[in-house]
Amino acid sequence: xxxxxxxxxxxxxxxxxxxxxxxxxxxxxxxxxxxxxxxxxxxxxxxxxxxxxxxxxxxxxxxxxxxxxxxxxxxxxxxxxxxxxxxxxxxxxxxxxxxxxxxxxxxxxxxxxxxxxxxxxxxxxxxxxxxxxxxxxxxxxxxxxxxxxxxxxxxxxxxxxxxxxxxxxxxxxxxxxxxxxxxxxxxxxxxxxxxxxxxxxxxxxxxxxxxxxxxxxxxxxxxxxxxxxxxxxxxxxxxxxxxxxxxxxxxxxxxxxxxxxxxxxxxxxxxxxxxxxxxxxxxxxxxxxxxxxxxxxxxxxxxxxxxxxxxxxxxxxxxxxxxxxxxxxxxxxxxxxxxxxxxxxxxxxxxxxxxxxxxxxxxxxxxxxxxxxxxxxxxxxxxxxxxxxxxxxxxxxxxxxxxxxxxxxxxxxxxxxxxxxxxxxxxxxxxxxxxxxxxxxxxxxxxxxxxxxxxxxxxxxxxxxxxxxxxxxxxxxxxxxxxxxxxxxxxxxxxxxxxxxxxxxxxxxxxxxxxxxxxxxxxxxxxxxxxxxxxxxxxxxxxxxxxxxxxxxxxxxxxxxxxxxxxxxxxxxxxxxxxxxxxxxxxxxxxxxxxxxxxxxxxxxxxxxxxxxxxxxxxxxxxxxxxxxxxxxxxxxxxxxxxxxxxxxxxxxxxxxxxxxxxxxxxxxxxxxxxxxxxxxxxxxxxxxxxxxxxxxxxxxxxxxxxxxxxxxxxxxx
Length: 718
Fold this sequence. Notes:
Layout (H helix, E strand, L loop, with lengths): L2 H19 L11 H14 L3 H12 L6 H9 L9 H9 L10 H13 L8 H5 L1 H6 L7 H11 L7 H13 L4 H13 L21 H20 L44 H6 L17 H9 L3 H19 L5 H18 L4 H10 L9 H8 L7 H19 L4 H21 L7 H22 L3 H18 L15 H8 L4 H26 L12 H18 L19 H14 L18 H17 L14 H9 L7 H14 L4 H9 L1 H8 L15
């Protein structure tokens, strides 16, 4: 049975028991004991997940109609599959004591015993320390005293041993006739204050506080080991960043890397194994001893933090030597393929944590990719390469990306999409490096420009080979990241805008996804902002005669893209090439004529020049008519009667006709502005942003101002 099905079955059994516990035995239609038995069997076999544990603890600690035998059986089989949360511990402590709505003393004793059994798996053991005064105050109840004394002995520290508690414990021991559990707790207290608690007070038979059930604890280890195996198989296991990464039982998914073990600690030093919290790491940072095998840093988050906070050249060199030896074994055939991927999986975790690739690993990839057959865990390699350092792109492509593309393209053509994601991740990483650098490297401009140019080629090929929404969305991810870089105040003066090729722009603009069209318009509007900023900075420079970063032909090409998009969306001049800079969306004149003739045969009411506008474009027509109907509904809500409603699509002529026939009266400009605002409200602001930044008259119209129209950029050298 699948894991999900088993968990669902366990939850169903728990719900059946919970529902039955609300009814008296006579009111139940069926006997609940077989269901309890099946529930106990399932909990014994697989353990109880956190949500299921919460439900069972609520059932046991609250008043219900289950018999004591069933409740005790549930507690005996309460094997948590993961760590026990503080909320569970608090609810158990809260149910202790005397009271009408408290659990029976027999159940309370069983619950305290359960806390002792799971003490080593508590998520936050400090919660019991915080509840110390509550637990101590319950020692006068004889039925739960042995278990409470044992639990208190586990959690007692010097701060808990107070004079008033010593006196209370001595008095209670005398009244109880030297109860062994109380004498045992007194001996724990005596270890902290032997000068206060004299020998006479702790004489007599005392509880040794042995583990209540070692076989139960052993089975708990097996249950949690099995659950951890399932997590490893589904890649959902997480690690505690402030504790040494110790596997439960014998489970270890990264056997190639040694575990953290420190054997050379002195009296005044602290080992990593003793650290359990962020405060513990901070307090003992200068006293921490390095472990025997420093290469454990690859798999241990706590050791990674130590070496980042307290750099050590010798430690770094030892790690490099170990990695070099391990990778050389792979290259010389001394290690099998499984060992390689096991090692790289661990390195992947280390790289994603530290955001840096060890240089020795890059050298290995430079030797490995040319001879690699393209098989194995490709995702691991791509995850590591996402953190490629900011170096000359020409060299990176020669030694890394070129051989990688060859291997993937030859053996895995479907992984071309993964390459686009890889270059997007690399660009994002480089952006983070540049923003965190005190000085921008001189080669950064050419390096990023080369990456974008290479991505332009890949985008053109992919959009032709696989013209899907998935492809266009991945391509836009890259260009959006680049657009944010060239408009960032700290980076824009160090980068040059490298525009996508014309086929890429028009393929994205005429995509079947409105989201893609909006995202492309957003990218182009960011480019316009970057161009304008560069021109203004050039004009304010000390040497205005020096040519700017963009020549006139380059700007005219970009202006042509803006002109074509505005002609399609706003000016009802789609595919026109008669205006200055307009490209006509690269459609040849014979093609435009043929499309116009075809459209006239299909419907004489619409011309080719208006077919890509807000009302008629395939990706916009639904949004436009919905917006107009919303406006009509708003008129009706205000109490105005409309003799007729627009059937759609909305055109300038249909609006005039609608107004004269008793429908909604609205101007053509107001309607289109309303559609743009509606798109922005729905999370698609790109179209409105581009049209506003391109046409001043529209910006003023939307902002309620008047002004002149401006559609193009000026030459940067002017």
